[in-house]
Records
---
Amino acid sequence: MILPGDHDDPPPAPALVIFTDGTRPWWLRLLRPGFRHVLIALARPGHWVVINPLSHRATVDLVPGVDGPALAAWFRAQGHTVVETVTRRPPRREAPWAPFTCVEVVKRLLGLHARWVLTPHALYQAVQPARRSSGGAAPPAMSPAPDPDHRCQTQNISTRICGARMRSTITSG
């Protein structure tokens, strides 16, 4: 529901859309290999917020002090497909109804109202830079503002991601 005073949408921000493989639950095998699950990382000042909407729960993890290209490279090193994009200001109307899936969660977080984007591969096609309808604008820099209180070394991304409860291989649930 859109409330009358709810017109202060946040400005577009960097996002990483991460596509993974997996065969659990069994029906994921019906989807295209490599595009059976999707999760998202959103840039916020000093950290990234990684939201992983699984079938039985959702996880929300913080990854402090890492820039976007390094985080994207880490996910790619795990064998995942990553699209660097930006969040959008959604239209000022309710989003189309759709089943509550990982794709729908990521679409809502991106501000994407696309009724027929129902599978991870369809979302992949919708967020490709050449297909975006954002007027061809380049995405903003992929690094969140540094957090002055954070003292971690940026070379140690894997440790910080794993320390944030993420497994080295993200599997769909």
---
Amino acid sequence: MIKFLYYLSFLVFVGASCQQTEPRNIDNKDCKSDNVLKNSTWLKEKIRELEAYSSKGSCSTNFSGCFYIARGQVHGEIIFEIGICCPGVDYAPAYYNCDGTLFCEFKNNNCPIQSDIDDREIIWSISSK
């Protein structure tokens, strides 16, 4: 009986510690807007992360001083490209869907090449000095 109570309390603890992620309710129309950086929770989070990384380094010390976010379309779907813009760094960007789902990283076969991305534009960047 005691083992059962321990097991039950463990399940309750594990179940209580699991957080439900907030559904990402942004669609292609929202991703095309000029306010996407203000309206998208996941993009705001990425920008905070990139700002923190940028403040800790520079392109000359640890290749973490310059980052960008670009927006474009592949087969009619809005995508976001997040990458490093330090000169001389061979780094493949990461690609996200409109809802913030990572679908490509480190030059795998699913990654678009920049020439495949229509209407590509840099929508945010940061560079430390």
---
Amino acid sequence: MFEPPSQLKEENNSRGHGTCKCSQEILAEITNGFSQDQKDAITAAGFGSLLKLKELEIRRDLCKDIAGCFDLETEEFIINGKRLKLSMKDVQHILGLPSQGDKIKEPPQKHVPCLFQKYTWKDDTKISSKSLREFFNKNSSYGDDFIRIFVLYTIGFYLCPTLQPYVK
């Protein structure tokens, strides 16, 4: 049964890494805590490859430096004077995500406010990272609501993150 999170508490960042909006390590940590039923539901919904993510800490400063070495014209990185072109297979190896499968099609652009409002819980204008993580920690459900919340979290805080701690 779907139950929204109760009172939210401030998250204790004991890792000392500062505010983290996008973290493969955190996503892998969350999915490792899922029950087998939850993992099966994610796989059945077509997102099983996200369960294979490794607990990999991505160093932001290094990423920023590497991004600064990217040549837009040749689509290569220039590191220590050497050109490096990454393939989909390289990305698969680094992140542990498959680089093949069905083509992702863009869904119809529908605005469904009642669905969005169902997951805002405390604030009717945004869905916070804290409330989504609290949901995962306190619920063992694995139905449609679980899948929607997993997709919201994954898209909003891993695949397409912003600097904000919420999805709007």
